[in-house]
Each structure stands twice: as C-alpha cells, then as structure tokens.
Amino acid sequence: MLSGKTAIITGSTSGIGLGIAKGFATEGINIILNGFGNPKDIERLRLEIEHMGVSCIYNNADMTKPDEIMAMVEEAVDAFGSVEILVNNAGIQHVSPVEDFPPEQWDDIIAINMSSAFHSTRAVIPHMKKQGWGRIINIASAHGLVASPYKSAYVTAKHGLLGFNKTVALEVAQDNITSNAICPGYVLTPLVEKQIPDTAKARGISEEEVKRDVLLAAQWTKKFVSVEEIAGTALFLCSDYAQNITGTHISIDGGWTAA
Description:
By secondary structure, the chain is an alpha/beta fold. It has one domain (6-186, 225-258): Rossmann fold, CATH 3.40.50.720. The protein has eight helices and seven strands, in the order E-H-E-H-E-H-E-H-E-H-E-H-H-H-E. The protein has helices at 15-25, 39-50, 66-80, 103-131, 152-171, 190-203, 207-215, 227-238; strands at 6-9, 30-34, 56-59, 85-88, 134-139, 177-184, 249-252. The chain has a seven-stranded parallel beta sheet, with helices on both faces. The longest helix is centred in the middle third of the chain and has 29 residues, at 103-131.
C-alpha cells in the first residue's frame, strides 16, 4: 500500500524524525533525510536506512531558508519522480522567561517550528495534486493545545502549526490529500534532553526534579512517549484506513490534555 512511495521528513537526523524515517522504511517508503549533524554520523544513518531495502538520500536544507526548502523538494522529485508524503517535524527549543527571551531565538523557533511547514507544504502540494494522492503530517505537540511557562516561542509556533494544518486540510480535501497533526507529550529526544538543564535553572530545581515534577507531571501514565509510537501513528495516517481523517490532530500525551 505504501511501498515505493517517497517521504520527505524534516529534522530527521535524530529524535522523532529519525524514528519516523526508520518506521517508514520498514514499510518500503523511500526517505529524504534532512537535518544537521556530523556528516559521518548522517551517512551512517542513511546507509542504515538503505539497508532496510529502500532508497534514502540526505538533504541539508536549512529550515529557516525557503529557497533551500524548495530545492529539497525539487531534488526529491528529480530523484524519485514524486513526493507523496511530507512530515513537517523540524524543531528547536529555547526555555526562558518572556522578558529575558532573546529575540533571535524567538525568530529562529518561529521560522523552524512553524514557517518551515508552510514553505515545505507549499512546495509539495502541486506534486501531490498532480499524482492525485498525498499525506501531510505535522508533528506538533501537546504544547499546540496547552501552554507551559518559559516556552513562549515554542507554544506559539505549535499552536500556529495546528491552525495551518486545519487550513491546508480544507484546501486539499477533494484532491485525495490529507493533512493531520500529531501532538506528542514529552519524548526523551535530544531536543528534550537539552532543555532539561535550562528548565532546571529557570525553575531553581534539580534535573531529576525536572523530569519527575515538570516533564512527566502532566503525563498521567508517567511514561515518556516513544518515537516508535509516533512513527506508528504517522504510518496509520498515511494508510487508506485514514483517508477520511483530515484537518485534525492525534494526541499521544499520556492523558496530558485530557485533564
């Protein structure tokens, strides 16, 4: 059903994006990896995915630069003939009180976490329409539904991403293209691990207290979400079983937003 299709996954050299890339590869989906990192490590990941029986290319497009995003989409089309699946996953984080929040950090978070989804979606839709099939998946967050202190830019970007997701879904609803969002709770990715010391400093508590009393406080299961759970949900949204699911979000947050 999905074998032979091609997916662009932004921010996929680590964390959630890499988990989705590997999950997609198990179903025969060709992969365009994107993100930053050590070139040798990225090449190792690319080969690891190719050894799963699919083609995998890497593109280092900077998600703050629309021209590079457009070029990444065109490279994918040139390489594989089409792009059927887009996963907007790239994201960064900064934790700080609003009055101390560096404006340049705000700009980068809005650009990478929200605006890049506009640029990549804008670029792939014509190709999806041409082939009469497409799946757009936006990796949002529980913070797209609720707020937490000291994360003003991230919360703003994720709320905006959910609004964008709904709008796109309506525009392409009759083109056999769906657009949906996944809203995970806390996943112990490198992005989350990096914000633990900053959160500890901002709140004046230990890093273990951050994990127990901040990160997992609202997740009623008291478990971190796994990248495999997110990958499995993304695969479901790409399947024919989800062809009438569009413009909505699926929360994987251990009950966080139920309370």
